[in-house]
């Protein structure tokens, strides 16, 4: 909503001029001053009431638990002092609120990979997670030095392939250092979006699955250094209002575009992981939970059919 503030302010100013014009128009017709103000007041109230009635269904958040449940589902999986890597602002934003305002689970080290491309973010990390910064200082300091040079003169980097290569390598080496250092101290987790291939982080998206086993736990992957089966309790995800029909969303709403697909994709990943290690009964539950949220998920239907077929075999 913050992006619309200039529009809201412009409309409010225009409305003020419109009300002033109405007052002047009525006054010019020799209406009594008291009657003029009554007309103006009625116009203001009518405009406000119309806007209130039109926007109330959308802005009523009394039963909107999606954001809170999303964060709670994420945090319920992460062990004390764990590191969570993400590129999703739908994760990083609510986590900022939970940790900085509510002061909940401040032990969890949430690192937004995208914000690592801003020097001010390292000041925040030094304050919030000094141990993390200290353990990877030999990689963080050189990168931040390059980053500040880029912020001072991005054009120089755009015109120089060696400079671009230098800062890109420094960035990836820093992230790799953070992961390898923190995993010795506490579990490391990442959200599904980190594995999505993109031009900026292609090396990172290749290095992580090549180096670690990805274990689906709730809405995150936990990294493991071996390839054996890692059992964990089946998640009990709170999904109030997400897909039960109590709240309606536009097709381009972030809930439909990002939040709901995160739930279904991670449940499918959970089912596939369990099926891979012949935990088909538990896999079936995960696939069914994904289909309960979105019956159109083909991967969940396919996984469900395969696990049920395996159980039917003598």
Runs with pLDDT <50, length 5+?
A: none
Structural class: alpha/beta
Mean pLDDT: 89
Q: How many discrete structural domains? A: 3
How many whole angstroms does the radius of gyration measure?
26 Å
Q: Percent of residues in helical segments?
A: 55-70%
Number of strands: 5
Apparent shape: globular
Instruction: Provide the spatial order of strands within the biggest beta sheet.
Output: 2-1-3-5-4
Q: How widely separated are the two ends?
A: 57 Å
Number of helices, counting only DSSP H or I runs of 4 residues or more: 13
Order of helices and strands: HHHEHEHHHHHEHEEHHH
The biggest beta sheet reads:
5 strands, mixed
Strand percentage lies at 5-15%
What does this structure look like?
With 314 residues, the protein is an alpha/beta fold. The chain folds into three domains: 2-59, no CATH class; 66-224, no CATH class; 254-312. The chain has 13 helices and five strands. It has helices at 5-28, 33-59, 66-77, 89-101, 119-128, 130-135, 137-152, 154-158, 161-182, 202-211, 254-276, 280-293, 298-312; strands spanning 83-86, 109-112, 188-190, 213-217, 220-224. A hairpin with a 2-residue loop joins strand 4 (213-217) and strand 5. The radius of gyration is 26 Å and the shape is globular. 26% of the residues are buried. The mean pLDDT is 89.
Ordered list of secondary-structure elements with their pairings:
Layout: H1 5-28, H2 33-59, H3 66-77, E1 83-86, H4 89-101, E2 109-112, H5 119-128, H6 130-135, H7 137-152, H8 154-158, H9 161-182, E3 188-190, H10 202-211, E4 213-217, E5 220-224, H11 254-276, H12 280-293, H13 298-312
Parallel strand pairs: 1-2, 1-3
Antiparallel strand pairs: 3-5, 4-5
């Amino acid at each position: 909503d913050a992006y619309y503030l200039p529009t809201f302010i412009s409309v409010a100013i225009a409305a003020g001029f419109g009300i002033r014009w109405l007052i002047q128009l009525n006054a010019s017709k020799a209406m009594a001053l008291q009657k003029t103000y009554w007309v103006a007041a009625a116009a203001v109230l009518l405009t406000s009431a119309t806007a209130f009635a039109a926007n109330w269904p959308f802005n009523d958040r009394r039963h909107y638990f999606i954001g809170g449940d999303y964060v709670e589902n994420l945090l319920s999986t992460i062990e004390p002092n764990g590191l969570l890597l993400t590129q999703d602002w739908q994760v990083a934003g609510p986590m900022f609120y939970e940790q900085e305002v509510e002061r909940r689970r401040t032990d969890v080290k949430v690192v937004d990979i995208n914000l690592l491309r801003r020097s001010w973010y390292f000041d925040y990390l030094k304050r919030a997670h000094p141990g993390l910064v200290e353990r990877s200082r030999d990689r963080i300091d050189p990168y931040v030095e390059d980053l500040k040079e880029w912020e001072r003169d991005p054009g120089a980097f755009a015109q120089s392939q060696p400079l671009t290569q230098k800062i890109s390598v420094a960035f990836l080496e820093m992230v790799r250092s953070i992961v390898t250092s923190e995993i010795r101290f506490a579990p490391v987790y990442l959200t599904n979006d980190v594995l999505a291939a993109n031009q900026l982080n292609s090396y990172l998206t290749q290095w992580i699955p090549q180096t670690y086993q990805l274990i689906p736990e709730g809405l995150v992957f936990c990294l493991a250094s071996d390839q054996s089966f890692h059992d964990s309790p089946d998640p009990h995800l709170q999904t109030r209002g997400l897909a039960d029909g109590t709240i309606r969303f536009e097709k381009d709403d972030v809930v439909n575009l990002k939040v709901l697909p995160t739930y279904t994709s991670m449940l499918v990943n959970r089912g596939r992981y369990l099926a891979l290690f012949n935990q088909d009964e538990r896999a079936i539950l995960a696939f069914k939970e994904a289909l309960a949220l979105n019956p159109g998920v083909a991967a969940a239907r396919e996984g469900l059919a395969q696990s049920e077929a395996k159980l039917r075999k003598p």
